[in-house]
Amino acid sequence: MNIRITWEDNHIIRYDFPELWSWEDFFKTQSVTQQLIEKESTHPIGVILNIPHNIIIPPQSVANAHQLLQQFHTVVDVIVVAGGNTVVRALVNVINRTYWRDSNRFLHMTDNLEEAREFIAQQHQQNNSSNNDSPKT
User: How many structural domains are present in the chain?
Assistant: First the structure.
């Protein structure tokens, strides 16, 4: 597998992409991640797709990305693309507009890993605040 998976503080799973990779690599990585999540987590998890600036995107990216992103486990509440280039940003915009315009789940973009971690922490904090503010039944 070319794409490396890392657990960060039990609330974030990070995918580190190499410059060259294939959709088959991502599908295999996704399968391993699903198993990890099922064994290890019941709380919300953020995902960071850590993309190098010089990444080469394989063909059929919109369809494959959509399929993979729909397969993320239900405990994944936020997905952030960190880094990348203008092609990656355009792809994220197309996916968000085409597939997730009527959904609460969509991809977020940040310039780097640190911003991605901060964004996920803020989202989890907001979600915890919202859950604590809702009436108890």
Answer: 1
pTM: 0.88
Kindly report, residue by residue over 55-83, the tens digit of the pLDDT. 999 999 988 888 887 788 888 889 999 99
How many angstroms separate the CA atoms of 99 and 57, rounded? 19
Any idea what the Cα angle at residue 19 is, between residues 119 and 97, rounded to 5°? Answer: 50
Residue with tokens 């990348």: 84
At residue 72, the 3 state secondary structure works out as coil
Cα gap 13→124, rounded to integer Å: 14
Span of 1-5, 23-27, 120-124 with lowest mean pLDDT: 1-5
Residue 129's domain comprises 4-133
76: how many CB neighbours lie within 10 A of its CB? 19
CATH classification of the domain holding 58 = 3.30.750.24
